[in-house]
Amino acid sequence: MAIEPKPFDAALARAVLADCEAALHVLKGNPRGVYWRLAWCSALTLLRAVGHVLEYEMRSPDAVPEMREAWRAWWKRVGDAKADHPIFWDFIRNDRNALLKEYRFTAEQGIIIQGALNTVPLGSVPLNGNVAEPTYLMKDGPFAGCDQRDLVQKAIAWWDRQLEEIALRAAAECMIEKRPGAAPA
Fold first, then answer.
1. pTM (2 decimals)?
2. d(CA 1, CA 88)
3. 24 CB neighbour count, 10 Å cutoff
C-alpha cells in the first residue's frame, strides 16, 4: 500500500534528503580510500539534488499552486540573500560543482597521529606505536578545517528547515485564500 503524500509535502525532495542521511551515516563510519570518495560524492551530489528535485516537483503541472508559489518566493529570497545562506551557496552548490565539473575534492581524509603537530596524509604509518585517528576535514573554501561530516549534517538540517518553511508558507497561503470573505485568487 502506497503512502499518499500531504498536499504541502515535497515528497520527492524529502526522499532525496533521506538518502542524504544515509550517505552521512556511511561517512560517519570512517570509510577509507575509494569508499570515502564514493560516500563523499554521494553526499555532495544528493545534497544538491534536493534542490533540483524540488524544482522538478514544483514545475510539475500536478504541483499544488500554493506550494509552487511558496517555492518561487523561497528561491527568490535565497538568491537575493546569498550571504544569509552560505551552507547552500558556499558548500552545497560550489563544492558539488567543483566535484562534478572538475572532479576537484574540497574535502580530504587523513589521520592524526597522537603526538604529531599536523594532520598527515592517509596511508602514513604511525611511528613508535602512536595511535592514528582518521580525520575528515574540508581543505578548501570558507569551511576549510571543518569536519566534513558536521558540514553535511548542517546542510541536511538546512534543507529540512527550507522544505518545512516552503510547506508552511504554502499551507498558510491556502488558509488565507479559503477563509470566509477572502478575495478569490
1. 0.83
2. 36
3. 22
